[in-house]
Amino acid sequence: METLMDRPSELFDEVAEVVREVFAQDDMILAPEMTADDILGWDSFKHIELIMAVEAKFMIKLSTREIDRLNSIQDLVSTIRSKRLRNSL
Amino acid sequence: MAVNKISLKFGWLGGNCSDYIQSGWSKAEQVLRRSQGNVSAIALPPIGASKWYLLTCDVTFPKPLGSERPELGISINGIEIDRFSSGSGTSVAIIVPGAALSAESTNLIVFRNYIACEPTPATCQGSDENLGFAWQSLALSPIVNSEFVKPGLLPEQLGEDVLAAEIATAFQSLGQNCECGLFQRRCDVEPLGLLRWAYIKPPELLRGLTRRFEGISDVSALSLRSDSPGGHLTGYHDVYGLEYHTYLMESDVDVTRATQKESDRLGFLARMLIEQLEADEKIFVRSKGFSAMRELRRLHLAMRVYNPTARLLYVDEAPSDARELIGRVEWLAPGLYKGYLDRFAPEENAYEFSFDVWLRICKTVFHFDRSVS
Fold it and tell me: Which residue, of A17, A73, B15, B117, has the greatest Cβ tally within 10 A?
């Protein structure tokens, strides 16, 4: 059976939805390579809010090292994916 | 049989101290037990051989009566180990020589309450004696890698040139003021940190570390207040004494919702801080507030409960008669450093901090730390 973990584009869509919710912008257009510099208002406070929302949505806990390495939306997607893969083993 | 370490909790909720306590204790309350009278004793089982031990106690001092400050004395097997004095609310961490403990017979720890106690609280009706210190937990564990070395200045210019951003990322603030956080900002890094923009007094910092900042996300402990209507909101945490910038304007937010959000954020950041301590990921920085070496060592030891190699850089102003120390770093003990600034930023403008000296100090510690790890 195909799972979310096998379909990165679907996972990206889910992450994008979380980002839009956190920034309260339903029409925000997102791309994997976008970083905090590309999104207005993405400061360290929003960063924490986003990580907490991601942890709640995907039922994972990110380590401080994983959080430190997050620079782009793609980094977030990849981290969630590998975390879920590890959790499923 | 001798045990390697021991950890006691005093309340009836999850408590395990009833087999160990001797005379001088009140009945257990939910999370604590109070010392009763002037002498309270605990009998611990034989403790296995180690050169040094760390004794940590989560204990709240009673309020001073008049000008008398409560004092807590600790002796082990008849040897007086240390004596503490505090206004109210502190945690205690002391080094205990292994030679003071017995690996063959029971170890008797006596806590002496030198000053008259506060009146019996309603929770302990029926006690006919005054009560003293409120005890939540006590732990005795061996110290790993503890060599007590003679302090000395660290060499500068160790290692190759490294970007300021890389250096600044290696550090994490343990509160006091925002200078460390601003130094990192000037280096173009914005690490997340519970205490990066926070003021916290030494006793509360020790308490937080001892309790792993348990309950920090309890919304009832946090209040957001502004100096002027609609102005900047400052966060005040009742339990851990945190005072920090929220970077929120009262006029822009619903304060009740913002308080809930801030409480969640504190919980998240406390989790990060604990992970960083446990993984020994950062060199922690504290400035001001720890005037005596003994107090500084207590902070370092409280950190080393999380990881025996935890590192602490204490930053202070160079004394007026030793200005040659400006920018230099003293090695006080393994993982414990003291850096000397020319000055702290003026209170009214933290942005006017001494960036070049901060960079020099952090660079020295960064390179030295790399060379020894």
Answer: A73
